[in-house]
Amino acid sequence: MEVLEKIQKQVDSAAIVIYMKGTPQFPQCGFSARASQTLASTGVEFAYVNIFEDQEVFQSLPDFADWPTFPQIYFNSELVGGGDIIIEMAEQDTLKDAMQEAVEKYNS
């Protein structure tokens, strides 16, 4: 399987997926830590991919959605953006609703 197909399967596998450095329990950079903590603070379930566990994904993900940095957050297979966007959504009180909508859409 080609790496871009693998990434597509990963983003299709859950309503919300964050590609991050490390895991939500053990983030390995500040941006990934803040983004995963912000997602977790909503109480809405999300999946994660530790980009350090697969060098092909790490190398190819920036090309997948033309987004050069990590973390990358996807709702229903579409790139929402990075940690700054998620944090801004949380500050505007729109993140939890957007995540819940993504889960409802995914499960329907």
From TrEMBL:
InterPro entries reported for this sequence: Glutaredoxin, GRX_PICOT-like, Monothiol_GRX, Monothiol_GRX-rel, Thioredoxin-like_sf
SUPFAM superfamilies in alphabetical order: Thioredoxin-like (SSF52833)
Record bears the keyword Iron: yes
Top-level taxon of the source organism: Bacteria
Xref: PROSITE patterns: GLUTAREDOXIN_2 (PS51354)
UniProt keyword Transferase, yes or no: no
GO molecular function annotations of the record: 2 iron, 2 sulfur cluster binding; disulfide oxidoreductase activity; metal ion binding
Chain ranges of the Glutaredoxin domain: 16-80
Record: residues binding [2Fe-2S] cluster: C29
Keywords: 2Fe-2S, Iron, Iron-sulfur, Metal-binding, Redox-active center
Family matches, as NCBIfam families: Grx4 family monothiol glutaredoxin
Family: Belongs to the glutaredoxin family. Monothiol subfamily.
Designated name of the protein: Glutaredoxin
Organism (species): Candidatus Pseudothioglobus singularis PS1
